[in-house]
Each structure stands twice: as C-alpha cells, then as structure tokens.
Amino acid sequence: MARVTAGLTTSHIPAIGAAVDLGKTGEPYWQPVFAGYEWTKAWAAAEPPDVVILIYNDHMTSFTPQIVPTFALGCADEFAPADEGYGARPVPVVPGHADLATHLAQSLILDEFDLTLFFELDVDHGLTVPLSLVYGQPEQWPVRVIPLAVNVVNYPPPTGNRCYRLGQAIRRAVHSYSEDLSVQVWSTGGMSHQLQGPRAGFINSKFDNEFFDRLIADPADLARLSHIEYLREAGSEGIELVDWLIMRGALGGSVTELHRHYHVPGSNTAVGHLVLAPADFPGRPEEA
Fold first, then answer.
1. Is residue 59 flagged as an active site residue?
2. Catalytic site residue 227?
3. Distance from C-alpha of 156 to C-alpha of 222, rounded to nearest angstrom
4. What percent of the chain has pLDDT over 90?
5. What is the C-alpha separation between 71 and 115, in angstroms, rounded?
6. Catalytic one among 12, 97, 193, 261?
7. pTM for the predicted model, two decimal places
C-alpha cells in the first residue's frame, strides 16, 4: 500500500524563485538562504518519493476574491506554472497523479472534509518555489505532485486544529491506497512576516524557533494557537504556518528531525525549512 514516508516544510517567497531564475543564488545576500537546502537536495536525490502532496496557498492567481475555497485539491494530470502578472516562471509543467488525487478526494470528503476539486489548475510560486529549492532547475520535475491549496489570504482561514486534523485524514487516505507508493507531504509558507502596514518587515525569530520545536514535539497543543496569536506573534502573513500543521498531522505521532534551516532575512521574511521522518516508517536513517 502507499505510505507517508517523509514531511517537509519551507518558505515559498517569490523572490527566491526570481533568484533561482535569474542565476543569483550565489550572490552574498542569497547564498545563506540557499545553503540551507544543500542537505535537502542530497537527501531528495537519495530518497526520491513517487508523489508529493504539496500544501500551499494560492496568492489570488488561480483563485479570485469572488471565489475563495478553503481547501482546494488538484486532481489533474498536470499543472501549468501560472502567470502572476509578469509571465510564468521558466520552470517545467508540474506532473500530477490524478488517480491518487481522486482517491484522496473520495477519502477526505467521506471523512467529512469539504474540498473544492480542480481538474484544471495553474500553480503559482507557492508551489513552484519549493520544487525549485529541492530539485533545482531540471528539464522536468522528478516527482509527481498533488497540489492542495489552503486559503490563508482571505479571512477567515481554517484553524490550526482543522489543518492538523486534515493532515491526519490525509495520512489515513494515503495508507488506504492500494498501489505501493512512497508519498511525501510538503507544507509551504511562512515563517513570521508582514508585508504591509505599520509592522511591515516584522519578524519574530523567537516565535519561529519555538514553532519548530512545538511542531515536532507537541503538534496537538500547537494546533490550538488562535488566529489572533498568529497575527500578533508572526505578523499578518504568518498565518501561512497553519499549513505546516497539515504536514505534521500526516506524519502521525512521533517523528525524527532530519534537517532544520532558519535564516533572516529572505526578502523581508524569515526563511524556515524542516525535514521530518515519521517514526513508523522503517526506512528512516536510524534503522537503515
């Protein structure tokens, strides 16, 4: 059967994508950001999954202020890079896994999670930047991807608890799929940042690092964090961190921390990155 074999979190800052596309990753400003992903690139090459379920937020690119789904699942065979106002990123079309995606749709909806299903969807930097950070600039992406977009742009976003329970439901759904697949769950966005208003440029490193620790050790308690606490402690865009709880729920109870990276600033944002292995996956490093 299919198994959730790893989880990954990362910021998805659009300027990171521009740095990759324009060949600026080695410049002094950007080099410390990208250095934190060198371990992950080697790990990803050595432990390639069959499918990545990639949780991100659409930045009003494919969705609009008139139609804002809370949870939207991409069920197509492929997803084109979106034009975000200055042309699409020069990255490959993202291959999907329609069979597993439709299985997820059935399982999650019957598990009482209401999803919007997309059979055609362009994906923006929230999804393509994480792929670039892990896989660089290939001719084609080496994994198939199922996009899961979460609304953290228009109020009200889902609660952290709702996201954590969605991750647990994703785990059940994946493990009920009959094909033998290695499935990783990636959650993107964050960490603390605010892009407008009197607190523009706000970063809270203390909160960010505590969030890392709580996500690993006690996600159920972290899931109780309220919207107003995210706003106060992580800035107006820090609410993207609820997406990370979906990944953590999908990994089950205990996890092993494989890699952590944190850097400030990355285009007025705290760059955060984490790779985790579920304790029940027999291929994790300490049992290899």
1. no
2. no
3. 19
4. 85
5. 5
6. 193
7. 0.95
